Amino acid sequence: MTEAGASSNVLLSEYERLVAPTDRFSKADVIPILLGLFGEVGSVMSTSKKLHREKSAFAAGYMRDVEEELGDTLWYVAALCRRFDINLSDLFSEALEGQGFSMSIVANGNPSLPFAKAISSVDLAPLDSILLRLGEQAARLLNLETDAANAKTELVEFIRTYIEAVQASKVSFASVLNGNISKTCGRFITPPADTLPDFDAEFPEDEQIPRDFEIEITQKADGRSYLRWQGVFIGDPLSDNIGDPDGYRFHDVFHFANAAILHWSPTFRALIKHKRKSMKDVDEAQDSGRAIVIDEGLSAYIFSHAKSLNFFENQDTVSFDLLKAVQNFVRGYEVERCPLKLWEDAILQGYEVFRQMRKNEGGIVIGNRKDRTLRYKPLKRKVL
């Protein structure tokens, strides 16, 4: 291998090391990994199909989607490697040797994180043709559950075509790797507290979301919920606004969960008049009308999903598909820096409090930004 190839091995080894803790399957689980790999290859093909069908309407999202699907495909290859005691780096090294590929090092704007990019010395086939071959090879890999002896040979052939697919897709291999590391680690690994974003720490106290807060929510005879903070009523009374009452009148709980756990909620900032007005750009882009609509819309979107799941009762996880939808929902806003694991915490803690609030027709929400927690305390009922 060339020096460039060695650098490739270092990065791929680092990739393997970083994503290994995100593999929650048992060592004996080969079939789910094979099915996952086959499914991800299908997703890459589906992305290409969308480009054909929708043309310019999908072009803007094509590169992002294909990078993500190629990254997910590699994750499953790495998972197979762990189960068959094969180094992912060795697969790439063998796939690149003698196959008309050369290697070059590209810094990608970050000299401390070089990566190797495979460049073909021959003309590539059209992407669709390559993806069809990738699909065929993914199908052959399904036999590995009963034919483990040929695992490395079959995986090398798969990686050769995978490299061609990366090239023909015109995506950056570094972006594929780094994007998948960010996505999977952000989803499954609880990050160190000191690495999490705090969006208003540098602002005056009256422009910060309170570090600790208690919000009293009461339901009155008219069936509406009322909020009170520091003894003062805030916001408007809320009803469910639906024919089949479902408790959405208590949905501000979700904004409070976002505030305590994500350190983000334009809605909560507006309710308590803690917008960051000392910086006009932040106030307009992050704290005002459109951001509030995103916050409210996201609450309604997750609620419609949660309603069919008994509001996440007895669940300790949230589906990856829902979390990815959330991620797309907030793209372009500061909160997109929060890892998916933090979003999962905010959703589950928020719905834990919501279920109690709904059951008891009110209560007190206690938020702690330092610990990133939200909890419920019952109201003191008057004794007659």
Features:
single chain, 384 residues, five-stranded antiparallel beta sheet, two-stranded antiparallel sheet, 11% strand
What is the N-to-C order of secondary-structure elements (H for helix, E for strand)?
HHHHEEHHHEEEHHHHHHEE
Low-confidence parts: 1-10, 101-121
In one word, what is the shape? Answer: elongated
- Widest sheet: strand ordering: 5-4-3-6-7
Round the mean pLDDT to the nearest integer and report it.
87
The proportion of residues in beta strands is: 5-15%
Commentary on this structure:
With 384 residues, the protein is α+β, with helices and mostly antiparallel strands. The protein has helices spanning 3-19, 31-54, 56-84, 88-96, 127-141, 151-169, 173-188, 252-262, 266-272, 280-287, 289-307, 320-329, 340-360; strands at residues 101-106, 115-120, 212-219, 225-229, 232-238, 362-368, 373-377. 53% of the residues lie in helices and 11% in strands. A five-stranded antiparallel sheet has the order 5-4-3-6-7, with helices on one face. The radius of gyration is 25 Å and the shape is elongated. The N and C termini lie far apart (84 Å). Mean pLDDT is 87; it is low at 1-10 and 101-121.
